[in-house]
Design brief:
The complex is a heterodimer of chains A (about 300) and B (about 220). With about 300 residues, chain A is α/β, with parallel strands linked by helices. Chain A has one domain: TIM Barrel (Alpha-Beta Barrel), CATH 3.20.20. Chain A contains 14 helices and ten strands. Chain B has about 220 residues and is α/β, with parallel strands linked by helices. Chain B folds into two domains: about 80 residues, Methyltransferase, Methionine Synthase (B12-binding Domains), Chain A, domain 1; about 120 residues, Cobalamin-binding domain (Rossmann fold). In chain B, about 60% of the residues lie in helices and about 10% in strands. Chain B contains nine helices and five strands; from the N terminus they run H-H-H-H-E-H-E-H-E-H-E-H-E-H. A five-stranded parallel sheet of chain B has the order 2-1-3-4-5, sandwiched between helices. The chains are: A alpha/beta (about 300), B alpha/beta (about 220).
C-alpha cells in the first residue's frame, strides 16, 4: 500500500519511514555487509528482511554513499562498512548493475514505494577529487570545480535514466552541499543547477523524488523549495518550507534514546501539518531494533486513534 | 613603531584573507626586521585565525574559507614555530585529537585542530580512522588533559562510546576530559555516552577545552 503519495498530495497527515539502509538490514539479518555490498540479490534480500521486520511505509535502497564514486575510480573498502579511501585513482569498479538488479527484485517483492538513493553531483564531485581539495578548489579554481561537477552530472544522468527505466523513485543525497559546509552562494553557483537537471528528469518520468541534505539547511530552503522535489529530508523539520519535509527523530535518539524519548520527538514532529516521519539521517547500524519497532508501532497507534 | 604595527596587522589580515603566499612573505619580512617569532605568532597569526573562527561561527565564512585560511595560518606558523620551540620552556596543556575508527572524514577535525593549536595548546593529531586501541595507547603514553574525538558518520558513532568505556576499564577516565563532535553528534548523545562535553563547531571546541581544563 502506498502511504507516501497521499502525504505528497496533501491527502494525508503523515507516513513513516526511519531511514533504515542496507547496512542496518544486513546487521539484523546477520549477514556480513561486505558480502552484500557487491551482490544485487543479497541487497534485495536484506532490504526485504528489514521491510518484513519493521513494516515501514517506503523502502530506501541505500547501499552506501560511494557507488558512483567507486564506478568512477575511487578506492572503497567494504569492511566492516563502506569507507571511501581516497580520490579517483584506480580503475572503476561498477556496482550500479547490482543496484539496478536489486531495484528490479524489490519492485516485484515490496508493495510500498521503492526509492533508490543516488548522490548529488556536487557531493559526488567532492569524492572524485578528495573533499578537502574540492572545497578549496571551489574558491581557488572554480572553473576546474565546475568541470568535475559536470563529469559527475554526466555519470548521474546516465545512471538515473537506467534507474527510472526500472520504475524506481529516486532520493538524491547531497550532504556536502549542506550549509554546514558551504555558503548559500556556493550552493547556488555549484550545487543547485545539477540537482535541478536530475529532478527534472525524474519528474518527466512521473517518479517520486526526494533530497537529503544533513546539517544546516535553513539558508538553502528558499532555493531547495524551487527545485520541485516531492520530499525534503532535513535535520531540523521546524524550518519553514513549502516542500513536504521528512525527519523528526534525531539519529542519536534512535541510537541511544529510550522508546519514550523517541515518542517525545515524534509527538513534537507531528505538529507539522504534513510529514514523512523519519530520522534526521540514516539509522546507525547498531541501533537496537526495539527502538525502530517502537517508533513504527507508535506511529501506527497514532494513525489508528 | 607604527611601521611595525602595520606589518603585524598585515599578517593578521593575510590570514583572514586566506592568502598563504602573502602570509609567509610578510612573516619572513617581519623576522628580518627583528620582530620576535613569539610576537608574530601571538599578535598576528593567532588573532588572525581566531577571527577566522569567529567568522565561521557567524556563518560569514564556511568550510572552504576556513581551509584556505588554515593554509595561510600554517604558512606563517611553520616558519615561526621552530624558532619558538627552541626558546620556549613553557609547558602547554596537551590535547589529543582524532577521527574514530571507520571514518575518514577529517575536515572538521582539521579545522578544530588548527584553532586549538592557534589557541596555544599542544595538540597531537592521531588523524582519521583511529582505532580504540590507538586512542588508548596515545592517552597512556602522552597523558593529555583532553581527548577530542570526532565522527561524521552514523555508522562510526558507536566507537566514541567504545573509547570512553575502554578508558573507564583501564582506570584512566578520571585523569582526562573527553569531548566529542561531528555532524551526527549532539549534546544529548555526548551525555549519553559519558563524554565531558560536546562542541558544535571549532570555536566552541576551543572554548569548551578552555572551560573544562581550568583548575
Amino acid at each position: 500500500m502506498d502511504r507516501i503519495t497521499p502525504v505528497i498530495n496533501k491527502d494525508s497527515h503523515f507516513a513513516i519511514f526511519p531511514i533504515v539502509c542496507v547496512d542496518h538490514c544486513a546487521h539484523i539479518a546477520n549477514v556480513k555487509f561486505s558480502d552484500v555490498a557487491i551482490d544485487g540479490e543479497k541487497i534485495a534480500q536484506v532490504l526485504t528482511h528489514g521491510y518484513n521486520c519493521y513494516q515501514y511505509d517506503m523502502v530506501l535502497l541505500f547501499l552506501d554513499a560511494y557507488i558512483e564514486a567507486q564506478a568512477l575510480g575511487c578506492p572503497v573498502r567494504f569492511t566492516p562498512y563502506s569507507t571511501l579511501l581516497g580520490p579517483r585513482s584506480i580503475q572503476g569498479f561498477d556496482r550500479t548493475n547490482e543496484i539496478i538488479k536489486a531495484a528490479q527484485i524489490l519492485m516485484e517483492k515490496i508493495k510500498v514505494p521503492l526509492f533508490v538513493s543516488i548522490k548529488g553531483p556536487f557531493t559526488l564531485a567532492s569524492f572524485l577529487t578528495g573533499m578537502q581539495d574540492f572545497l578549496k578548489m571551489l574558491l581557488k579554481d572554480p572553473t576546474h570545480a565546475k568541470a568535475v561537477i559536470e563529469q559527475a552530472l554526466d555519470f548521474q544522468t546516465k545512471y538515473l535514466e537506467r534507474l527510472l527505466e526500472v520504475g524506481a523513485n529516486i532520493f538524491i543525497g547531497d550532504p556536502v552541499a549542506s550549509a554546514t559546509v558551504i555558503s548559500p552562494v556556493v550552493f547556488r553557483d555549484f550545487a543547485y543547477e545539477p540537482l535541478k537537471i536530475l529532478l527534472s528528469m525524474i519528474r518527466k518520468k512521473g517518479a517520486l523524488s526526494g533530497i537529503h541534505i544533513c546539517g544546516d539547511t535553513a539558508p538553502l530552503i528558499p532555493m531547495l523549495d524551487t527545485l520541485g522535489t516531492d520530499i525534503l529530508s532535513i535535520e531540523d523539520i521546524t524550518i519553514k518550507s513549502t516542500t513536504l519535509k521528512m525527519g523528526g527523530v534525531s539519529t542519536s535518539t534512535i541510537l541511544r534514546g529510550s522508546p519514550a524519548d523517541i515518542r517525545t520527538e515524534m509527538e513534537r514532529a507531528l505538529q507539522e501539518p504534513r510529514l514523512i516521519l523519519s530520522t534526521s539521517c540514516d539509522v546507525p547500524v547498531e541501533t537496537n531494533p526495539d527502538n525502530i519497532k517502537a517508533m513504527i508501532g507508535w506511529a501506527h497507534e497514532y494513525t489508528d486513534n | 613603531m607604527q611601521g611595525v604595527n602595520l606589518k603585524l596587522d598585515e599578517i593578521r589580515k593575510a590570514v583572514i584573507e586566506m592568502d598563504d603566499v602573502k602570509t609567509a612573505q610578510l612573516v619572513n619580512t617581519a623576522l628580518k626586521q627583528g620582530l620576535a617569532p613569539q610576537d608574530i605568532l601571538n599578535n598576528c597569526l593567532i588573532p588572525g585565525m581566531k577571527e577566522v573562527g569567529e567568522l565561521f561561527t557567524r556563518k560569514e565564512y564556511y568550510v572552504p574559507e576556513v581551509l584556505l585560511a588554515s593554509e595561510a595560518f600554517y604558512a606563517g606558523f611553520n616558519i615561526v614555530s621552530p624558532l619558538i620551540k627552541s626558546q620556549s620552556t613553557e609547558k602547554k596543556t596537551k590535547v589529543i585529537i582524532g577521527v574514530v575508527k571507520g571514518d575518514i572524514h577529517d575536515i572538521g577535525k582539521n579545522i578544530v585542530k588548527v584553532l586549538i593549536e592557534a589557541s596555544g595548546y599542544d595538540i597531537m593529531d592521531l588523524g582519521k580512522d583511529v582505532s580504540t586501541e590507538r586512542f588508548i595507547k596515545a592517552v597512556t603514553i602522552e597523558k593529555p588533559a583532553v581527548l577530542a574525538m570526532s565522527s561524521l558518520m552514523t555508522t562510526t558513532l558507536v566507537h566514541m562510546e567504545e573509547v570512553i568505556k575502554e578508558l573507564i576499564k583501564k582506570k584512566m577516565r578520571r585523569n582526562i576530559k573527553v569531548i566529542v563532535g561531528g555532524a551526527p553528534v549532539n549534546e544529548e548523545f555526548a551525555n549519553r555516552i559519558g563524554a565531558d562535553g560536546y562542541a558544535e563547531d571549532a570555536m566552541q571546541a576551543v572554548k569548551l577545552i578552555k572551560k573544562i581544563t581550568i583548575g
